[in-house]
Amino acid sequence: MSRSEREPAPAMRWALVSGDGLPISGLLTVFRNVVDRACRAGTLELPVSADLGYSWRPDKPECFPSGPRDAHYPDWLRVNDTVPVPLDRAALMTEMSEIRAAVATADRLDPTERRELGRRIDALAQPYEAYFDRWFAEQDVDWVVAVNMTLSDAAPVTTALHRVAARRWTAGRPGGVLYWDHDLFASCAIHERGVRVYPEQPNEFTPVPGTARADRWVVVSTALEQETRGYPTDLRPTVLTNVLPVVPDGPLAERHRCFMNEHDVGARPVVLVPVRVFSVKGVEIAVEVFAGMRRECVRAGKPVPLLMVFGRLDEDPEHYEVVRRTVDQHGVADEIVFLDGVPISSRRDPDGTWQLDEIDLLRIARATGGAVLFTPNRTDVETVGLGPALAAIAKIPCAVTAYDAFEPNYGDDFARVEVDPARPAKAGAELIAWMTAISAGDSREMDANHSLVLERFPEEPWVEFLDSMAALST
Question: Is residue 465 within 8 Å of residue 238, measured between CB atoms?
């Protein structure tokens, strides 16, 4: 029986719990894509109630407790600002930071230190337990979508979520917790000040999916699924690739034209860097490539592109200084716009200026003959890396540094400019040549990339998975 012939599944009520810490990370935009598919199928009841982790992420103190001061969320997402722990902000942030560091090095602790760490985790888990119990009951939640909560950014909060799930979804109660992991321990090799942020594998302080009967688990790549085979759980995750946005065809709308006027785009191609300004994302390499693009355009008498970087400048101030020095070194400040955070959905500020979402920015890049730069400066952190996929969906070219997850997710047939960080200007010149050829009508490689990405990131498995979740909600 085809999907169109099946009876529609009932609508679910969701709560979102995110351990990633910032809406501009890209995970919320991927979640929006999933919400779009569920709403289209009639299997999700809006709004979605959410806690985005601002009360428990010690590395994001400026976002405590409900996000950046200028954060704006779409009507379909209701973000909580609850801080259930009876500690002042400074004390809570200190305790969370110390716990996270201790969990990452738990294998070096002696038995007494391990018992003390367990006690500290439990002391914070208890108020979060009460909070989750109350929240899920008040909202009559069917499913909790727990994004990147397996990582140990907040072991007390994850511990609380597991305890609540084991109590709430018992005795046949429909629903459960969907753990949706985009990163896991071994693959998330982030270091801060020379110290690894996460343990290389789960330990006794990091609950993994499968502790409750109703747990379901999704990971975004085969490599992550293979990593979980050594985890202490009998639950096996389903591999579901990220749901990509739909970039509509047709002419630009008034909001696009207003945005382009506000940023003096004119006849310039718009080049996007769809990442955070964070140490491992390599924005400084993107600036180096862009400097090469600028040099080639000046030499050839072509309009110099405008570079738009998605991330917030205050997320990682130390790394932003690296990026700023690179910008100053190449004298390209006048051609770069730091968007300081891209919203989940496009909106107009009270002063009339537009903030555009990922989809609208891709439409502008396509309409102006632009491109995408995706240049991680480490090979072992990205588990997928969606920059190339976004370029392909919009049928625009991209330049990419080498990273481990590229070939498993995209394959060698994916057409791109390969960036050698030692020779970024060369990649910039190659990308300009490619953009020129596409503007002249040669779209063969873009059409091939588009088809390849639709094949490698299919949405039908997600739609079927959402149908199965809805069927389990009754």
Answer: yes
